[in-house]
Write a structure and sequence with these properties.
This protein is of the alpha+beta class and 227 residues long. A four-stranded antiparallel beta sheet has the order 1-2-3-6, with helices on one face. Strands 5-4-7-8 form a four-stranded antiparallel beta sheet. Helix 1 crosses helix 2. The protein binds zinc ion.
Length: 227
C-alpha cells in the first residue's frame, strides 16, 4: 500500500489535524481491512476506510473544504490465486509478468485535464479537485472509491510489482531516463532508495528547469515487491 498525502498550499484546510494524521488513519484502516475483510473488494475497503477516517474528524473539522486532508492511493492485495489492485490519482503501479513485460496501471485523469486548469493551484482546486470531469483523491467522500482504477491478475501472471508516488515516477515521466521497464529494473537492482537518489540527483542537476515543472522536489516514495 502506498499513500501520498496532499499538502494544502495555503495552510488552512478547515481541519485541526495534519496530513500525517490523516494518512496514518486512512492507511491504518486500509491495511486492517485488506487483511481482515477478504470478502470485500478493494473499492469497498477504500470506501469504508475513507468513511472511518472522515468520522474521526467530522465533529471538529470542515470536511467539505476542498483542501480537507487527502491522499493518492495504491493498494495491492494477493494470495495464492490472484492479485487485486487499486489506483486512485497520480501514483503509479507497475506489474511485471514472468516474461519480463512491464505494465503500468495509471489513473491519468490529472494528465488529461486541460492545461488552463493547472495554471494555478487555486484554479485547479476551484474547478477540478474532486469535481466531476476533474481528478479525484481519497479525501472525506467514500463515493470516490468508484473512481479508482481497479483490476485483477492471476497470481502466476505477476512476478514483481512496484508502487511509486509521482515524485519518484519523475525518473520516467519527467526526466525520461527510461521507460517503465527500465524503472522497474532500477528498483530491482538498487531498491527504492536507489531510484529516489537518482531522481534527487536529476532534480539538483536541472538548474535551468528544463524538465522540472512545479515543485523542484516532490515527496518521493516507492515500494518494490518480488513475489
Ligand atoms: Zn481534521
Amino acid at each position: 500500500m502506498l499513500l501520498d498525502g496532499v499538502t494544502p498550499p495555503r495552510g488552512d484546510a478547515g481541519c485541526v489535524h495534519s496530513v500525517p494524521w490523516f494518512t496514518a488513519r486512512l492507511g491504518g484502516a486500509l491495511v486492517e481491512l485488506s487483511g481482515s475483510r477478504r470478502d470485500l473488494t478493494l473499492r469497498e475497503i477504500l470506501a469504508e476506510s475513507i468513511r472511518r477516517t472522515a468520522d474521526a474528524h467530522r465533529p471538529t473539522c470542515d470536511l467539505s473544504h476542498v483542501r480537507t486532508p487527502q491522499a493518492t492511493v495504491v493498494v495491492v492485495r494477493w494470495d495464492e490465486a490472484g492479485i487485486e489492485y487499486l489506483v486512485l490519482s497520480d501514483s503509479v503501479l507497475l506489474l511485471e509478468s514472468p516474461d519480463g513485460e512491464v505494465r503500468a496501471v495509471l489513473d491519468d485523469r490529472l494528465d488529461r485535464l486541460p492545461r488552463e486548469l493547472l495554471v494555478s493551484e487555486a484554479v485547479a482546486d476551484a474547478r477540478a479537485r474532486n469535481k466531476e470531469g476533474g481528478f479525484f483523491t481519497a479525501a472525506a467522500d467514500p463515493a470516490v472509491a468508484e473512481r479508482a482504477v481497479t483490476g485483477r491478475a492471476p497470481r502466476a501472471g505477476v512476478r514483481a510489482l512496484a508502487a511509486m508516488t509521482d515524485g519518484a515516477s519523475r525518473w520516467t515521466e519527467m526526466f525520461g531516463e527510461g521507460d517503465w521497464s527500465a524503472c522497474l529494473g532500477v528498483l530491482d537492482k538498487e531498491g527504492p532508495q536507489g531510484l529516489i537518489d537518482r531522481v534527487r540527483a536529476l532534480e539538483a542537476a536541472d538548474t535551468e528547469r528544463e524538465h522540472v515543472r512545479g515543485k523542484t522536489h516532490d515527496d518521493a516514495t516507492a515500494v518494490y515487491a518480488r513475489l
